[in-house]
Amino acid sequence: MISLQTPITSLPRLQPHIAKKFGQLQLVTLQDALLYFPFRHEDFRHQTTIDQLAAGQDVTIHATITALQSRRAWHRRGTTITNATVIDDSGAKIHAIWFNLPFLAKSLHVGDHLFLSGTVTEKNQRLQLHNPVYEKPTATPLHERLIPVYRTTEGLSQRQIRLVMKQAIEVAEMLTDPISANQLHSLRMMSLAEALRQIHFPESPELAHQAVERLKFDELLGWHLRVLASVAATHQGQAPAIPFREIEVRSFVQQLPFELTNDQRIAAWQILQDVAQPKPMSRLIQGDVGSGKTVVATLVAYNVALHQRQVAFVAPTVVLAEQHWGTASRLLAGRGVSLALLTGQAAKVMDADGQPRDVTRAEVLRRVADGSIGLLIGTHAILQPTVVFPDLSLVIIDEQQRFGVDQRQALLTARTETPHFLSLTATPIPRSLALWLSGVLSVSSIRQKPAGRPPITTTIIGPNTRSVIDQAITKTVARHEQVYVITPLIEESDTLGVRAALTEHRRLTEAFPHTTVGVVHGAMPADERVQVLEKFRRQEIMVLVSTTVIEVGIDVPNATLMVIEGAERFGVSQLHQLRGRVGRGTAPSTCFFVTDQTSPTVQQRLAKVAATSDGLAVAELDYNERGAGDLYGQRQSGLPTWQLASLTDQHLFERVQQFAAALEPDEQHQLRQRLSSHHPAQAFHRE
Ligand code: ADP
Ligand code: MG
User: Fold this and answer.
1) What's the pLDDT band for 411 if we cut at 50, 70, 90?
2) Best label site of 36, 414, 570, 634, fewest CB within 10 Å?
3) Is 60:48 a contact under the CB 8 Å cutoff?
C-alpha cells in the first residue's frame, strides 16, 4: 500500500541513484511530490512543421534525428553541448541544442522519432531549438495530451519525474481538503484531490486552468491568513512610544551632503509619527532603485537611538551590511550614539567619539546585551536569539522579500514588548496588492528621484560589438568613472555563471592592461566579496566583472557604465534592478544590453525596458511576460514566494479576502493550520 508518507526511494521501478536525485529537489515522500507542481504544460496537441517555424515561437514538432553529436565546449570548461539535426515530413531541417545533458547522447540515436517542444531561437541567422523538451512516442499517444514539465536537477529526466508523479496522484485523495465541500461548492472550485490530479496530468487546458486557480487560491489564502494572524498578534502588543527629537534630527538633516527629496521627508515624517505611538508600527518604504531609502531609515534609527533604545538594521547580504555600516558610521559620527556592525566576517563598533574600530564578536554581543549599542547593523543572523537586545524598539529590514510577515512573527514570540517594524523594498507594488496590503501594512512611497540625477541611456547592442563596449569602457575609465560588466546567467545553478565571469575577467584584464579589473561571483567566500567591493568603492578597482550577486542594493555613485551580457536571459525586473546600479551620481550614465538574439520578441522586450526608467512600468511588463503555457513566471525579486500565484492574480486576491472575512477567528486559525501542513514552510522558501 502506498500512502502520502511513502518515501520516493521505496517506489518500485526506480533505480536508487535516480531516487536519490529527488532528495536534491527536497522531495522525500509522495506528498512532497504531489505538492511539487509543474511550471509548464507542454501542449503536444498543436504541432507545427519545421518549414513553418519562426524565431520566438513556442512550438512542438514531430521529427526524426538525422545527426547527433555531443562534445565538450572549448570556451567553457565542463560544459557539454549536445547537437541534433532533425527532419520532418515537410522535408525541412532544424538544429536542436542542449547544454549539460551528457546522458542525452546515450539515450537518443540517429533515426529516432521524437516530439520536440520548446522555443525557436535564432543564432547566426539560423533557427534552432534551444534545450527543447523531448519525448519519444509511447503506447499512450503523448501528442494528444498536455504534458507536465518540472524544474529538475542534473541527471533526473522529465520522464522519471512523471513516473513518480503518476504514483503520487494515486494518493491525492488521502490529502484532506482544507476547504469543505460546501465552501467549495459556493466558491465553484474543484476539490484539492482533483486539482492535484489535474495540475500534474491535465485532461484538458480548461481543467488545468481550474486546477491552477484552486491551488493558487490555497496559496494566497494561506498567506493571507498568516498575515491576518500576524497583524492580530501585533495589535495586541504594546510598543515603546518614541518621541521625535526635533533638534537633533533637524541638525542631522542639515548636515547631509544633499537635500532630502520631498518624498523622503514625507516618508521620514510618517515613520516618526508611527513610532511615537505605543502601538507597534508595521510600515513598508517602497521606492525605486536609487530613490534613497537608506538615509530615511538611518534618520529614523538615529531618532530611536537618541532615546537610549535599540535598533536592528538587517541587510540581505554581508556586502550590503558593510555598505550600510559605511553610510551610518559616516552620517552618525560624532552625534552621540553608539553603533556596531556584526556579520560572520566582521565586528565593528563606533562610539560617541566617532572613531570606528574593529572589535571581537564577543565585545559586540556584550555591548548589545548591556544596552550600550543603540544601532546594530548586520545580516539576518542578528535577529537570532543569540543576539540579546534588552531594549529592541525598531527593526529595519532592507530589501524585504516577504513583507516582514514571517520575521515579525519570530520576533513577537520572543518578546513582551513588540518592536516597531520597518521594511524597505524596491519592488513596485501594483495597486491591487497595495490595496490588499493596506489592511495590514502602512506603505510610504518614495517616487521622486533625488534632484540632479541625469537619466541613464540604455542601448541594445549585438554580440560582435566588442569594440563598442571596449571603447565605452576606455572612455569611462579615462573620466575616472567606473564600470560594471554583468555576465549572463547561464543555467539555474550558477556554476557556469561563475565560469563566464572568470572568462570575461581574463579577457578584460588582457584588453585593459592599464586599468584595474576585478571580479565577484556567488561562489566566492563572503569576506572576499566584501573586499573586492570595498576596493571598487575606493576606486582601486575601476572595472568590476560580476554575476548577478551585485543585483541588490550596491551603491557606488561613481559607477556610470553598466554592461549586461546575455541580456535576453534576465527577467525584465532584474534588468531594471541591475541598471539601477548606475545613474546614482551626478554624471550621465550608460547601460548596454548585449544580446546575440535578433528575434523580434527578444529585441522588443529589451527595447521596452530600455525605453522606460519607471520601475512600475517594468514590473507590469514582467507580469505580462509569462507565456501562455507557463504556470508561473520568473521569480520576481522582492515578492512573497508562492509556487503558483503571482501579483497578476488580482481577481483571486479579492476572492481570498472575501472568503477569509466571512470566517470566524477560530475557523481562520484552523484553516491556517491545515493550509500550512499542506504547504510546508520549505515550499515557501524554495528558490
Ligand atoms: P536605494 O533606495 O536604492 O536603497 P540608496 O539609499 O542606496 O538607494 O541611495 C542611493 C544614493 O543616492 C546614495 O548614494 C545616497 O547617498 C544618495 N541619495 C539619497 N538621497 C539623496 C538625495 N535626496 N539627494 C541626492 N542624493 C541622495
Ligand atoms: Mg538600498
Assistant:
1) low
2) 414
3) yes
Kindly state whether residues 283 and 360 are assigned to the same domain: yes
| pTM summary value | 0.68
**Within a domain: 431:** yes
- Please check whether residue 426 lies inside any domain of the structure: yes
The most confident of 78-87, 88-97, 119-128, 565-574, by mean pLDDT: 88-97
Ligand 1, atom 12, lies closest to the CA of 292
Number of CB atoms found within 10 A of residue 598's CB? 15
SS (H, E, C) 426-472: CCCCCHHHHHHHHCCCEEEEECCCCCCCCCEEEEEECCCCHHHHHHH
Ligand 1 in reach of 453 Cβ (< 6 A): no
Q: Are residues 426 and 518 in the same domain?
A: no
Alpha helices (H) along 85-191: 104-107, 158-170, 181-187
- Does any ligand 1 atom lie closer than 6 A to the CB of residue 287? yes
Largest CA distance in the chain: 82
Q: Compute, in angstroms, the gap from residue 323 CA to the centroid of ligand 2.
A: 10
Q: Provide the sign of the torsion angle of the four alpha carbons 129, 132, 136, 139, taken in this order.
A: negative
Q: Which domain range does residue 92 map to?
A: 41-149
Nearest CA residue ID for atom 20, ligand 1: 292
Question: Which CATH number does the domain housing residue 103 bear?
Answer: 2.40.50.140
Q: Which residue has the cell 545553478?
A: 493
Q: Are 416 and 263 in contact (CB under 8 A)?
A: no
Count of C-beta atoms within a 10 Å radius of residue 331: 17
Domain boundary among 396, 424, 446: 446
Whole-number Å distance, alpha carbon 289 to ligand 2 midpoint, is 7
Answer with the one of 427, 446, 465 that is the final residue of a domain: 446
Do 503 and 562 sit in the same domain of this protein?
A: yes
Tally the domains of the chain. 3
Would residue 524 count as lying in a domain?
A: yes
Q: How confident is the model at residue 641 (pLDDT cuts 50, 70, 90)?
A: low
Query: Ligand 1 within 6 A of 450 CB?
Result: yes
390 neighbors 369 (Cβ within 8 angstroms): yes
Phi, psi dihedrals of residue 118, rounded to the nearest 5°: 170, -165
